[in-house]
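Sorry to interrupt, but I need a hand with the structure work. Leave the record below and I will have a look:
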Amino acid sequence: MSTPDNVAAHLSRIPLPTPLPTRCRPPADIPADLGPTLPAQNLERLNAAPAPEIHRTLLTCLHSPRWARRVAAHRPYPDVPSLLAAADEATYDLDPEELAGALAEEPLPKLPAHTYAAASTALSAGYAAYEARFGHTFVICLDGTAPDETLDRVLPAIRSRLTNDPEDERGVAREELRRLANGRLRGLLGAATAPSVHL
């Protein structure tokens, strides 16, 4: 049976071609920083949405019922930074069981199409070793990462994080969840029309 150390060592031997081959762009990801371009009317709609509707919408950003309730309960938000600060605080306040529940709902990072076979095999082994060690899916926020740099981010991250002790890794995973939720909130507010979101 592979141990985390063995898998990390195996991952470290996987060569990364330079430059990485051109890959197809995956479905559009959430922008890393929309800053002041976020439409004010979308924040107003978020503030005014009925509680059940906003709760469902917020669960698409972070699948934690308590997190969604807390973010919804602090409405109305005067501006986007206030919303993001409240979302961050709600993420930091998740207890271990709630954090585990949110982590369990996260998908694995999306890799570009045509990722070469050796890397796919190594990542599959790494993901399995990570889940066996920590009990949840490997999560990483890739906002702002170009598609052809995704593999360069994910491979070193999983190598490094496999060496963490469980308590330290829980803190790292919480921070990655916070960043993911933050980016998804920005994406909701920055999209004038989003068919899967009912703001």
Notes: Residues 88 and 178 are 6 Å apart (CA to CA). The first helix runs from residue 4 to 13. The chain has a mean pLDDT of 79.
